[in-house]
Amino acid sequence: MKDANKKYGALMSEVRGLVLVLSGVITLAFFFSWWLIGGHLLNPWLVASSIFALLYGLGQIFGSWFLYLATHQRNTRNYSDIPKQTNLTVDVFVTACGEDFHMIERSLEAACDLNGKHKTWLLDDLSDPRLKLLSKQLGAGYLERDGHEDAKAGNVNAALEKTDGDIVVIFDIDHIPSPKFLERTIWHFEDPSIGFIQVMPTFSNNAESWVAQAAAETSLDFYNPTSKGMDGLRSVTKMGTNSLIRRTALESIGGYQSGLAEDLATSLKLHAQGWESVYVAEPLAPGLVPSDLTSWFTQQLKWARGVFELLLTSYFSLFSNFSWGQRIAYTVRTTKYWIGLVTFIHLSLTLWFLFLGTLDAKANFEQYLWHLFPLVVADSVIRTLALRRWHYPSIEAHHQRRAVALVYATWPIYTLAWFMAMFRLRLKFRPTPKEKGHINIGWLAPQIIASLGLLIGISFNVWTGSFLSYPATIGFATIQLLIHITFLWYSMPSAAGIPVAPTPSSEDFLATSKNKFSSHPSASSFNTISKSINR
User: Fold this and answer.
1) What is the pLDDT of residue 8?
2) What angle (nearest 5°) sits at the alpha carbon of residue 341, between those of residues 337 and 346?
3) Is pLDDT at 416 greater than 70 in this prediction?
4) What pTM was estimated for this model as a whole?
5) Residues whose CB falls within 8 Å of the CB of residue 235, separated by 6 or more in sequence, listed in order
6) Is-contact 116 183, C-beta < 8 A?
7) CA-CA distances (angstroms) from residue 188 to 34, 252, 300?
8) Considering only CA atoms, which of 138, 80, 143 is closest in space to residue 109?
9) What is the pLDDT of residue 498?
10) Which pLDDT does position 5 carry in this prediction?
């Protein structure tokens, strides 16, 4: 009876999800219908915008909804079926490139303390003699190389030539794995078709600042329902840290792929080569999220520029090698940062019509917005409910207001990354800074200018009474202004180096993380991080 009730509950959940997505599809069709009325497709600019809207609507919006539905298909094998032992040998790589010594010490110590037979290696890309001594003291291997070509990918490939483990586990230096990390993951490789496993990334410092809180929230959707849906379609994408890769799989594609988005490039090649993947949706190795705007902008520019390059190159060249599930998953992944271009276009149009638009143009934009609003509401509802349904139990997922403000206001970075990729402008690889830095106010100039423009435009239209004729335009402008003000209000103290008190919800998450690792042999190291966060 219990199993029957469980199956019935799962079935009803799937039916409700399908009905909700079908409702969203109706709003998506209603949005596209705007281009079919009033002769809009006779205008070449509107034709171009309709093509982009179609690509984004189907690739990012509908694609994400489809992945949510696929969460019901993901692997649910019982842990009671896990083989008691495996003959696979394991090399654990901890990559370092000039980070804080104590951060490296904590991560390396935790990697050495993993349960199960393995060999831990510190991959030091700056040949620091202190780290060589540290490795010896902790019983880890120490690897260095000549030069710094291909950054992290080059560091990993150099280590592959000097090691021979069947499985390679990779941790970024700010992640501290639980002792049970290997126990909860390695058994998947008993299936010889599995090329790599990705473990859910989570973060332990999201109470450090508003930026950290918002940045952590931006990952909730992707690391929970989206990645679970990708798992359901057998199309998980690598995220760099917290990943396990079969050595023969890496050898089949010529090693770790280089580039600004080296992890995504590697998973593209692995899937194209026919290897399968698994997503382990457990917080087994929490790390650090960017806690200031300098770190956040640096990370997002690098990631967006790298992902766009893959979208314009490797994705299409490998398209025919993918399954349909993989095509959907990688379309969602590679178009994610188009949100910046979408925001830039809508912001520019809003400002234009507030100040300079003709009466006919304003009327058309007004109708466009009335077609857009139902889609925005439907998408928000679907994403919110999907996150509530499919998030990990210990992770709070009630709202994402901070995430919306941070991502929306990062539109200058994402837009810049797109044009850099389009015109092949190079961007030097730079690891995400692990220490706070003061941001140049010039980086915030686009958001400040946009806020002033929106404020003046809204005030002007209210003063002249035009807002009565174009309520949707004024409402849209007001929403954009509030988002920008929220971002500037909360992020400016971080930019100025002023500490921001954590919210209770973030403290709860941090406390959960502490309890989760209280039995860790290196729990004192983890607590050291927590104490430094709470100062």
Assistant:
1) 46
2) 135
3) yes
4) 0.89
5) 271, 277, 322, 323, 325, 326, 328, 329, 330
6) yes
7) 48, 19, 32
8) 138
9) 52
10) 52
Residue 404 has pLDDT above 70, yes or no: yes
**Among 349, 388, 338, 354, residue whose Cα is nearest residue 372:** 349
Phi, psi (deg, nearest 5) at residue 193: -85, -15
Q: Is 438 helix (H, G, I), strand (E, B) or coil?
A: coil
C-alpha pair distances (Å), 334 with each of 310, 323, 406: 7, 16, 20
pLDDT of res. 503? 39
Q: What share of the chain is helix, strand, coil (3-state, %, to 5)?
A: 65, 5, 30
Residue 50 DSSP SS3: helix
How many percent of the chain have pLDDT more than 90? 70
Q: What is the C-alpha to C-alpha distance for residues 394 and 407, in angstroms, rounded to an integer?
A: 24
Pairing of strands 119-124, 141-143: parallel
274-283, 321-330, 429-438, 463-472: least confidently modelled range: 429-438
> From CA 322, how far away is CA 487, in angstroms rounded?
39
Q: 212 and 290 in contact (C-beta within 8 Å)?
A: yes
For 353, the token pair is 């019509």
Rounded mean pLDDT of 142-148?
92
Question: What are 323's two structure tokens?
Answer: 């399954």
- 15-19 CB contacts, 8 Å cutoff, 24+ apart: 17/68, 17/69, 17/72, 17/386, 17/389, 18/69
Query: Which tokens is 268 given?
Result: 């593209």
453-501 residue pLDDT tens = 999 999 998 888 777 789 999 999 999 999 999 999 988 765 555 554 4
Instruction: Write down the architecture of domain 79-290 according to CATH.
Output: Alpha-Beta Complex (3.90)
What count of residues does the chain have? Answer: 535
In whole numbers, what is the pLDDT of the chain averaged over residues? 87
For the ranges 68-82, 309-323, 509-523, the one whose mean pLDDT is highest: 309-323
CA neighbor of 27 nearest in space, from 385, 349, 370, 366? 370
Instruction: Give the angle subtended at the CA of 123 by the CAs of 122 and 124, to the nearest 5°.
Output: 100
Cβ(295)–Cβ(433) below 8 Å: yes
Q: Which residues, including other chains, have CB under 8 Å from residue 321's CB and lie 6 or more apart? A: 271, 272, 273, 274
Q: What is the pLDDT of residue 441?
A: 79
On whether the CB atoms of residues 500 and 490 are closer than 8 A, the answer is yes
Please give the angle made by the CA atoms of 437, 441 and 444, to the nearest 5 degrees.
Answer: 105
Cβ neighbours of residue 7 closer than 8 Å, sequence gap 6 or more: none
